[in-house]
Structures are given as C-alpha cells and as structure tokens.
Design a protein that fits this description.
This protein has helices at about 20-30, 40-45, 60-75, 90, 120-135, 150-160; strands spanning about 80-85, 95-105, 140-145, 165, 170, 180, 185-190. By secondary structure, the chain is of the alpha+beta class. Residues about 5-10 have low confidence and may be disordered.
C-alpha cells in the first residue's frame, strides 16, 4: 500500500494509480449531471458588453505582448495570435484575429471525461474567459463562444506559432509534447500582430 504524507485533508494521491478505482472514476467517468462540472457553468455564462469607448492603444505590437503576458499570468502555458484574414474567412466570423492559449494536461480531455480529465478544459476556460472580458473592457469585441472543433483549434495553434502537427494531426510543442490542451479560442477585433 502506498504511504501518503501530509495532513489528513491533503492526503489525496496526486499521481493516480492503475489499481485505484476512485482515481479511475475521477479521471474518466463523466458526471451524471453535467451541471456539476465547472466547465459547463463557465461555458454557459453570458458574456459582458463591450465598453462603448475604445481605449487608446500604444501599438498593435505592444497590445499583442500584453495579451500574451496576461494569458501566461492566468496560467496558460502557451499563448499566441493568429491572423484570421490569412487563414480562413469562414472560421473568422468577421473577427480579424484569434488569440490561442494552451494549457498542459496529463490526460486527454477528449477521452478522459471525468472531473480530473476535464481539469485542463477548466483551466483553459478560466484563461480565455478573463482574457475575452478584459478585451471587451478595453472597448473591443472579443468572444470565446464560437465553437471550434479540436482539429481546427490545433491548426490555429500552429498558425499562432505554438507548435507543429504530428503525423496523426495532433498538436505537439517542444516542452510538453502532445500533453497540451488548446483552450477555447478568443476571437477579437483588438488590433494585434500575428505570431507564426
């Protein structure tokens, strides 16, 4: 039996175990009621209004740096900007830029549907929700409510300079390999400079 250290309220095994049914359920078993998932709550939260008077901006280069620094401050591991005008006009929905953030994950959230498997989705939603709200407070349109399939998210991540696609079409980055989750994409008209 594995020995756990620390105070009793912190003695949850952090690495998991193949023979631990509670860990298996925590990672893989989807909740009976999706309203118990924070990701469901954040996903359905209404977005705020755009401030009516746009803020004066220093330059697109400086704003790009500030957007990416804020994403990293909010615990994204990677952040980049894609120019949608050069990529796909159908995907853009009238927005010129996409801010793409990624968070590290041990479990693939698309296959691990339990609370633990969805931790990366929750972390990514936290980053993009606040980032989009901050951009709207600056007086520019920003939304994370446009549904983007996984394949397109990962292609946008490549366009934003975050990594490359593997042979099977998965995003791979230098530091985390394929252990990375691309969060909801923030579409915006904030003047930015694209990466990649």
């Amino acid at each position: 039996m594995r020995r756990l250290s620390g105070p009793p309220w912190l003695r949850w095994p952090r690495s998991g175990s193949d023979d631990d049914p509670y860990w298996e359920a925590f990672i893989n078993r989807p909740p009976v009621d999706v309203r118990n998932m924070v990701t469901e709550i954040i996903g359905k939260a209404p977005e705020g209004n755009v401030f009516p008077t746009p803020s004066e901006l220093h330059s697109p280069q400086v704003m790009s740096r500030h957007v990416k620094e804020l994403a990293l401050y909010l615990d994204a591991q990677l952040a980049g900007i894609a120019d949608l005008g050069r990529l796909d006009t159908e995907l853009s929905h009238g927005y010129p830029f996409a801010v793409v953030c990624a968070v590290e994950t041990r479990y693939d959230p698309y296959t691990a549907q339990g609370f633990g498997g969805q931790a990366a989705v929750q972390a990514g939603q936290f980053v993009t929700f606040i980032l989009a709200a901050w951009i709207r407070e600056l007086g520019y349109r920003a939304t994370m409510k446009i549904e983007v399939p996984r394949e397109q998210r990962e292609r946008l991540a490549v366009a934003a300079g975050l990594g490359t696609l593997t042979g099977d079409g998965r995003l791979a980055v230098a530091k985390y390999g394929t252990g990375i989750h691309v969060a909801d994409v923030v579409f915006t008209d904030l003047p930015l400079v694209a990466d990649g």
